[in-house]
Structures
1.
Amino acid sequence: MGALVEDVVASGVGKIQVWRGGSGDPVVYLHSANGEAAGSVMLEQLADRFQVVVPMFPGFGESEGIEHIEDIEDAAVHLLDLLDAVGLEAPAVVGTSLGGWMAAEVASRWPARVSRLVLINPAGLHIDGAPIKEIFGRDLAELAADLFADPSNPVAQLMNQMSALGEKDLAEVPFEVLRPTLQALQATAKVAWNPYLHDPKLLRRLGKITAPTLVVHGSADRLIPAVHAATFVASIPGARRAEVEGGGHLVPLEQPSVVADLIAEHVGR
Amino acid sequence: MRFFSFHLMPYPSLPADYDGPAWVTCPNELFDPAVGTRIYNEYLDQLVLAEDLGFDGVCINEHHQNAYGLMPSPNLMASILARQTQRVKIAVVGNALPLYNPPTRVAEEFAMIDCISGGRLIAGMVVGGGPEYYSFSMNPAHAREMFQEAHDLIKRAWTEPGPFEFYGKHYKLRYVNSWPKPVQKPHPEIWIPGVGSLETMEFVARNHYAYMGIPYFHISVFERTFRMFREACGREGYDADPLQMGWLEPIYVAESDEQARREYEDHFFYFVKRLLPGINIQPPGYTSLRSYQNILKGAGSFAINLQTWDEVVEGAYAIVGSPATVAEKLAENLHRLGTGNLLGLMQLGTLPDHLTRKSLGLFASEVMPKLRAEFPVAVPV
């Protein structure tokens, strides 16, 4: 398995950290609010077969420029710039949750720039009676239970440990340990606070997507109700759905090989 | 020293079996309008009493969707007080600017209060508490810049001839031309409350406004906060005037130390354990990381963590006792903090009307004169 290597590219908003690995057909991966990138088993497995490009969204990792992004439209335009900056005319684009929403925005606004699309438990829609659960201000142990079907996942464990800290303990944690998470949450809030994790105009634009699309749904996703995945499938022309049995919201972290195989199968068609 | 009587207008009747937060999601089926009718009137009467007793001003503030403070519109309360009082300053501390759209609404309503009261308004401006960004679904990542822009707009609406165009990032107004305008020129005294955010202190220092330290922390946190504020003024090239600083502190006076504690302790802990939970939520982007780092330093000493009365006394989370004890402790801490405004939170939690009135009376007759002698009013710079 090829580890990803760090690169930096200049986009319209500033310096963007990009993780790269492998060769062959290009696959751009857009991370969730969790910021999964380097060290992701799923991405390393994909890098065995494809040229994998993982841009960190502004505010995540070392990427700059969040001050120039006010909403999801700015985020989409930033990603369009980024495709130009990394020299990819029409790569496959894969995104999880927040990243899935961004992938759908790019593919529906500029259909020619996306050759294949994979949306993994995507956010992006509001469906009456089926709200996406709160991600901001939650107790971390409760949030972990919504994000992971498997409580033994290391990230879920870390969230549980953080939850157990009192305010006094939290004040003792070196700030540099907290900083990446706080920055990532701020960046997420900027695009996703209100409208909450969706774009009211996305649904009627989904019909413009021309890329063959796979919607991957974790059957045990407790954050986003299943009807969201079903609505993406019903609204994107020709979209298919793949169910990952027992997969939680962050299924790429839980079942990396299963998801990597689904992506590879779809992109390699 | 200027003495203010501060009121939060808390909801005193949360059921004993409710142990959830008092903010954002506290079910409003727990609100009893009959209780509301009683307490709004009691609380307003307590503020009017403060004028009769010789306080220099009264303070009210704004919070939404919570049991901690029942003033979603402090301006309604201020307009009542403008009519029912004749002399005191009416400090609205403050309006949460980003929650008013367009914020010319604040310029208008504050000007109304200033006109009705004959120039007695102190105009407080706040970003709004963290919970308000949930209650209003306002993007906390925009909070600071919306506050900044709204402040600029309000100040211009008060001081520049209209109509003029205001074209900001968040507010785009083609005709700004506020009627009425405030009595006080160039504008009412402006107070900004804060919990230790560096940006806020620097903003207050730059504009020569007054900084109000938000309570419920260990006294050492206030000490650090006001030291930082004085440093911020120093960086602007001037020494902070004591009247530019206000210390908000729960105070209770009774006939003896022992009686004061006996009458007060349960009401204080209702406030701490029932009304504070949920107040300190920090939505993402609400403060800069630099400020958040500073705020975290004080987080462990937030009153919500208090377990015993000894801790309350040790950290001066409330000043409680006989007139002699209260005067002595307030004097000691006022020397330590260097603030020229004392904002006494004279009612809190479930403290009933008759005890609040008794404490107000003892404070005014036996504590205030001693402190006035020890801290003569400074002339504003």
2.
Amino acid sequence: MNKTFVDLLKKYDYSFLISMLFIFIIGILNLYSATHAHTSETMQGLYKSQILWFVVANIVAIAISFINPKTIFKLTYFAYGVNIILLVLVLILGQKGMGAQRWLVIGGFRLQPSELMKISLALALSKYYCSKSSDRELYLKDLIVPFIITLIPTILIIMQPDLGTGLLLLLIFLVISFYKRLRWKTIGTLFIIGIISGSVMYKFGLKEYQKRRIVTFINPQADAKGGGYNVIQSQIAIGSGQLTGKGFKNSSQASLNYLPENHTDFVFSIFNEEYGFFGSIILITLYVLLLMRFVWLATSVNYFFDSVLAIGLMSIFFWHTFINMCMVMGLSPVVGLPLPLMSYGGSSLLTFGVCIGLATSLSNSRNIF
Amino acid sequence: MFGDKELIHIHKARALQIANIIVICFAVVVARLGYLQIYKGKLYQKFSQQNRLRKEVVRAPRGMIYDRNDKTLVDNTPRFDAMLTRQFLSNKEATFKKVSKILDMDLSEVKKIIKKSSYQAKYIPIILKKNISQKEVAMIETENETLPGISVNTFISRDYLDKEIGAHALGYISEISQRQLPKYRKRDDVDYKLGDFIGQFGIEEQVDKTIRGDNGFEYVEVDALGRKKKYINQNDLFDGIKNQSPKPGQNIKLTIDRDLQLAGYEALKGTSGSVVAIDIETGEILAMVSTPSFDPSQFSRGLTQKYWNSLINNEENPLRDRNIQEHFSPGSSFKPFTAIAALEEEFITGETQMQCHGYFKFGRRIYRSWKRGNSMKVGVVDSLKNSCNIFYYKIGAELDIDVLAKYYRMFGFGKRTGIKLPREVSGLIPTKEWKLKRNGIPWQGGETLSCAIGQSYILTSTLQLANAYATIATRGKRYRPFIVKEVLDQNQNIVKTMKPELIADLKLKESTWDLIQRGLYRVANSPGGTAFWRRGKGNQMAGKTGTSQVVGATSVQQLYSKCEDKEYKFRHHGVFAAFAPYQNPKIAVAALVEHGCHGSSAAAPVVEKVISKYMEKNMPQFKEKYAKIEREQLIKYIRKRKAAREKAQEAEDE
């Protein structure tokens, strides 16, 4: 018994948990620096609750890492179904938070089903694709069922309204389909469809503030209300960091409250201001290493479901990281996606904790289960 | 079919492509970082360090408040504070020395202020001195270069031109508190920030949303020392940033007549009391004064600890509006309503005469009249004139409290008048059910007797009393009292006019109105009436005195001693309510003077002064006419008395 336990600890894949810890440590220092000079005491104490959430996320991740992926495989559609029901419930009786209905309160605990949906979707798509386990390339018609699987939660989430997360689901769907050998020709067709439906949606389907974000991005001059202000301030913060940065707690942009949301969406700007180009290279390298580990995992597991799931989980991490960095640098509209493990927020920490836990479980399944 | 391992192998190519895409994506990120931090880094560094962009709030000027004749009651004046931002301080000692000299402060005082706020972030400006003079402002501005970190903060403060007079109705504004912040944000859907001023009392609170306007903002470039460099208009980097000018608040015109307000305040000065005047044909509040009072301007200028303490520690509580936020037993001023109940229920008629001797026995208790040994028979009219308690005890012994309560409620007692001012009390009209519920003890018959003369559980506010007397004057029509007459825009164009709102139209017998009005008229206009000597000149006021008993006298000696000999806080309150003029009623006024002992000597003069002012202003020819009639009647009366005396003398002589 004792021997098997030691054996287990030897075979356990620590790489994901350690990556998470490294990025989190950088994140928490950065969060402290971004909020320490704030006038309100709740803001100053944010880093404490972030640490608490990290502990919770770790416990969840470690617990999940001991579940056999076969069990997860069986529960996949069930989890997807439950999550859809939760999304519907949010729409019916969700609590208003920041002008959008995203929360569901269950026994005093605030649940954000749209966060969990990212993972549920990756699971459902993985299962669907491996049930059709042929080696054939995917044609457009092969996408119909998985697209519907994606579209249902996407529409429910966009109705909340949370455009950023909704579009993220579509992106996850794209990455998984790409991995499942979607033909390049079909990708081209999809690209054209995407542009057409996108412009139609912009015209009729977007809320005023969502349109404004996109307009601000394309043409900052067109925005009279100062929505471009955040991006300009963010760029000043990043640029002024130069090669080596201003150092810990020395971000003037943060301390002068030039940058709103500097503890959530704009943490990367503060990080850049304080640690400069070199610091960012280190942080980006950490993210890339983690993502590569996911890709490696996809090629080295024993089951195809595991492999697709690894890519799905990777895509969740990838899109958050990439889009967040792009938006604070003025390369994409500000859609409100957090930077994994760096931005303040319990729900997002928990989501990434679950991702890490699942990945570890997949990796462990090769040797342990 | 393929095995899982083979499938994974087939997909390996795509996995590699994905890995490549990831690397490419982050290469783009790094390239962008390189562009921002290396290529443009110096420029951004400059913007960040030397030139700071600051988004400054431009506060919307708050709307002005005018009286009904367009006299300004509240306006805005700029106020200046000297500020210090520690982040920008350099050459500390010299700067402190210089600034303390300019502001006429001790050097140690300056240092103390800075030390006190040292726990705060360095970039937050600290107030060095509030309310500095124009001269001090000019000196700081000219010495700008040698005073790093020192700046002047300008903002608009609220000026209440009449200071204490009518402060309760106007209210005050002050900085939103930490506790109010979330509540008010939710209520108004406005993103208030600490430092924002909001209406906290009276009209300022009630119409806050209308008169506050919308703040604007402007972007300001400040240099490394926090000094404003220029206002941002056009600049490579700041393209797309635009300023927004504030939207001034709307102006408010009140129903208040400043002259009546002054007359009321003058009459109440030095006492604790309240007076309110209502236009009986519309419900417009013409005057509303409560004493002791406070100076609302102090709140928007930043209260000094001393002034605040003087308000808080004053036992008379100057911050309460005694017109609507306090209630009391109306005493005999409540008798007309009991008489109305008796007339309408046909327990008495105009002809009914009752003995008004010194006491009335009910059960085992003896209820005394306030005058002893007075043993004549009176009708309902003279029962009001003489304020005969026995008359009303008899009504109370006969009529049920629930029946009386029904009539009292008809006149608006026992519920809020609905004036749109915050925190109005509802007063109290007891019923049997109410008492059983509250005390668990059934109603006692004797209590009805006390209620019939406005004592016991009965509680009314001054405003309720005035409005009920207005209802007597209009013969049943009662309007919801209101104080905001018009909302005006910046150019004084009328945006909204408040219309009178009829809330009750009582259908009582004409004879009832006649009898009650005549009784009230005699109180002030017939020799022997309780307010005859307080009637003023040419007012034709019809009213009723009352004494609100203050319970809690400690010793027997105190209890039976004359009111004026008692300790101040055990003296009774004086109440008087009236309408005028009798033949052509226009205005109803009620006043309460706390611990004033008598309605006649304390409260009646207050009411009379307000009515006098009203008559003088609005119906001077009537006032003269009435004064003439009064003079003639008095002469006639004196002659009659003289003749009677002479006749008696002659009879004696014979």
